[in-house]
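Example record

One chain of 394 residues, shown exactly as stored in the release files.
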Amino acid sequence: MHSSAEDKEKQPSAEEANNTPEISRAYLHVRNNRLTMYELTNLYGGSVSVATPGSFRNDDDYRPMLTRESFNTGKNSNTSFTFTYSDLHCCACPTHHPLLGRDVVPVFVLSDQHFPAAVPAGDGGKCLAIVRIEDASLTELVDIFLAKIRLSWLPPGTVILIGAAGYLSGVGTAAYADKFAEVCCRLKRALPNDNVITHAPIIMQAGSDDPALIKSMADIAEWIKAGATNFLPQTTEKWSEMLIAGDEPSQPPHAYHLELPETTTDCTDKKIWHSEPAMPLKETIEPVPQAEETKIIETLVNELNQKFGAGISEFILTDRKNIPARKNPRGEVDHIILVGTNHAEKFYEAGKRSGIPSTYIGTPAAETANLQKNVKQIKDIALCKILTEKPKKL
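Predicted structure tokens for this chain:
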């Protein structure tokens, strides 16, 4: 190992290190257990990999802090929601707006870590309602959606996008396509109205060095184009562009036959598909930069609006680092005072990044309860800190 000047420049400062999203022990426990959960399938054709790329914790991406996260060690499940599923109100946008309303068609994205944690609307308009499970199977994504969402509330035309690149990596093209058609049929049976179900874009924010996964992604993109009634052609073309080799080293050309469902919503009829990419595929995918991710999301939003009348805001926010400030539903937030130990300090750091004026009063755990009973004492301590500390700390 060697340490060059360039390497040193890339190392985060102490302040940047303190501002990274929290990685709890519960999160890591679930994350490690998930890596051993996939049961690899013997396929006729296709390819199988044990790689599980990416995670909920990507460098310099603070959007998970806009979501409601849960690290369930009992179920080995790390999940995040951009809304409160009890009343379907958004918790990621600057305003706490409802997902449902008159002439509003909700759009749900069910994905693993290969879709942004949140895509808030900056103007108070409609956003994407995102449900993620880290390293999810397609079945798990549908399970949690059907368990948490009151289906009778969903209006006709509700759009549901599903995708899980980690699962595709684990089981291969044929098993993934079978399961995708199965869960689409299951959703159609469960939902009370006529709804739109299609594949979600795959955004490899952490990249991938697995040629088998890249080939499987190309296969699935071609299968979607040929067999989906509601597929999004522009969006599918945009996210699959990152698989095509330009000047980079490409995979050796190889073709095979796969037995796949005839359509993306047909659980029974199958046909033999010839898998041969029209263009050379990359051997590896570099982490998707912010600008490319933004193009994919903007293409998705435009296509959802044009094709399904989704009415998603044109002012979507895709910045990974500068997350938007939240507004109190009862008015503007003037200042937040946080009292306590670790958790209070984490919320304080999140408030600073969001631009919300905040003050942190660190107290030993034994003293926190007594201090919280005395509102005047809290205000006095906070005022003293505001007047004496440097402005950059507020």
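Notes: Residues 290-308 form the longest helix (19 residues).
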